[in-house]
Write a structure and sequence with these properties.
Thrombin, subunit H; single chain; 240 residues
Length: 240
């Protein structure tokens, strides 16, 4: 898990933390396309190994890197958030430690159902984990200073499209129970699934958009890391 930090102050974009991201290998981070589509590489710095969003507070596993290249998914549509995913190529590799680790990305042909962001058969729910420094209702809609996590259920696509008519096949929704949700500032961060088979965490989605936060009738929407997106990630990174 990383956060993206804007290093310059131009126009209406404020300086500071603005989105999250997932490390997929030492030189590449996956995030949401809408986070970076209007930015130059020189405007973004990536911080890894952080729990606190204060970059002046040096932590034991803290690392940082500049962005050398922004690659946006070719099917991304900014008006609808369709294909809301991008890859950041870093100017130096991150060192994997106890506090800096990658999320696994399934290969396009992987058929392990544990790794797919699909709901379980009723009445059960299939849960994933979301991480970020985004806005929290408990803090009067201010961004969290510390990294937080929330366990969210994947909902049926029919429920999702009824709640969000603008959803496409490259999206899924999760949440709607206990008013738990991702929110502003969490965009670009991972929706991760645990595989009992491999004993690893896998990237299944990207925090993308929503209609408010914590509304049980309108769960947050995530970019689906499905077959085509998985292949695109492999084609644009050095994952072995």
């Amino acid at each position: 898990m990383v956060f993206l930090y804007k290093t310059t102050h131009e126009g209406q974009t404020r300086r500071g933390l603005f989105c999250g991201g997932s490390i997929v290998e030492p030189l590449h981070v996956v995030t949401a396309a809408h986070c970076v589509e209007r930015l130059l590489e020189t405007e973004i710095k990536v911080y890894a190994g952080k729990l606190d969003s204060n970059i002046d507070l040096i932590e034991p596993y803290q690392q940082s890197a500049d962005v050398q290249l922004i690659t946006i998914y070719e099917s991304f549509v900014s008006e609808t958030f369709h294909g809301d995913i991008a890859i950041l190529t870093l100017d130096r590799p991150l060192n994997f430690t106890k506090g800096v680790k990658p999320l696994c990305v399934p290969r396009s042909g992987n058929t392990d159902k544990d790794l797919k962001p699909r709901p379980a058969k009723e009445p059960s729910f299939k849960y994933g984990m979301v991480f970020g420094w985004g806005v929290t209702v408990t803090q009067n809609f201010r961004e969290s200073r510390v990294l937080r996590e929330v366990k969210l259920p994947i909902r049926k696509q029919s429920f999702c499209t009824a709640a969000h008519p603008g959803m496409t096949k490259l999206m899924f929704c999760a949440g709607g129970l206990l008013k738990q949700d991702s929110c502003q500032g969490d965009s670009g961060g991972p929706f991760a699934l645990w595989s009992a088979r491999s004993q690893k965490w896998w990237l299944a989605g990207i925090v993308s958009w929503g209609d408010g936060c914590g509304d049980p009738t309108k769960p947050g929407v995530y970019t689906r890391v499905g077959t085509a997106v998985r292949q695109w990630i492999y084609n644009n990174t050095n994952i072995e």
